Amino acid sequence: MNLPIRTLASLTAGLTPEQKASLDEVASLMLEIYQTLARMRYLSPSDIQQGPHDLPPSILSLYVSLNLDPRIIYLYSALPYIDPNCPRELDFFGRGEFTDFRTERDVVQGRDPMYSDQPEERMRPWMTPLSCIGNHNTALFYDAKKYEVGIFGQLSGCSLDKNLREGWVSKLRNEAGTVRYVKWYDEEEVPITKEEYLRVRGLDQDSDDSDGDEGKEDEGGRDEGGEGDEGADDHGQNDEGEDDEAEEDEEEYDEEDEDDDYPEDENHWDDMDGRPAPAVLRDIVRWYRELKELPGGEKSGWEWDEEITKPLYIKHGWPGENFDGDAFVADQKREAAAKREREGS
After folding, report:
1. Which stretches of 69-148 are DSSP H helices?
2. Dihedrals φ, ψ of 41, to 5°?
3. H/E stretch holding 82
4. What predicted TM-score, i.e. pTM, was given to this entire model?
């Protein structure tokens, strides 16, 4: 029996124009990140291979064998990739690695991006990494159902998104009893009025806002209260004054009896901490523009050390239209050579 010939068009025929537009936006924003790195002189424009790509039947068959969702298959055809013949090794965002879903290696590893070998850690068919973790570093994960991107580190297993709490509001009270209201942005507190706090929380403007959403402040003004910590004081005691540790010691506990297995239909990534994909990807561009993120990493060489590049980006006018990339590169080479000589390698 002759098997039907698989084509990209046939595998993605069921996608709506709206779904394709969303996927194209993800690909376009990934391209913007790559182009920002090219403008920073980390990539050469010729290193970037834009989609859509003509995918060979062997790769399309691999997608089918892995039960990839049509949205992910379409995205793989649309994403930008780095020329596999690029003459040097490169690090990507968060010291992770670029990925290329035209290759069998990256497609297969993309199903288990954290190298866990656990079924519940495998990506759902409608999810994919947009980058690799590299040597225990950072990866971007995309959920096509929720249209969200998460930023995760391999060692922490937690979100590393600087702006995960964007828009969250808090009411903080210091030891003197002074109350203030803040909104979170890029891991920083932005002062707001009580009226804005109540509006965001959906509370009546005449409310006394005593709804239990209060955090303690330390001397630095950061929220130390945390959620779900109302029953403990600063000394780790519960409401009855008994030590939490003593209470734990009294409990009969057998690690072998504890069932850590996920139910068969659950997955570690089902509740991924993410934000709308366009917001995250635009933030990554912005972080590069603001030098909150810098190109480079373990494989990139001396010249991409932050202590060399950051002052030079500022010196030569980054991110303005008059950024002098040629002068940046010339200074970068001199500084890297000087550092190698100083450190004797």
Report:
1. 70-78, 104-109
2. 70, 20
3. strand 81-82
4. 0.74
What's the rounded Cα separation, in Å, for the pair 111 and 127?
9
Is it the case that residue 268 has pLDDT exceeding 90?
no
Query: How many CB atoms neighbour CB 172 within 10 A?
Result: 20
3-state secondary structure 225-243: CCCCCCCCCCCCECCCCCE
Contact 144, 125 (CB under 8 A): no
Number of H helices, E strands in the chain: 10, 10
3-state DSSP assignment of residue 276: strand
Neighbours of 96 (CB within 10 A): 26
How confident is the model over 81-140, as pLDDT tens digits?
Answer: 999 988 778 899 988 999 999 999 999 999 998 888 788 778 899 999 999 988 888 999
Identify the residue with better confidence: 86 or 35.
Answer: 35
Output the average pLDDT for the chain. 80
For residue 87, what is the DSSP state? S
Let me know: does 60 contact 7? Beta carbons within 8 Å: yes
Rounded to 5 degrees, what are φ and ψ at 191? Answer: -60, 140
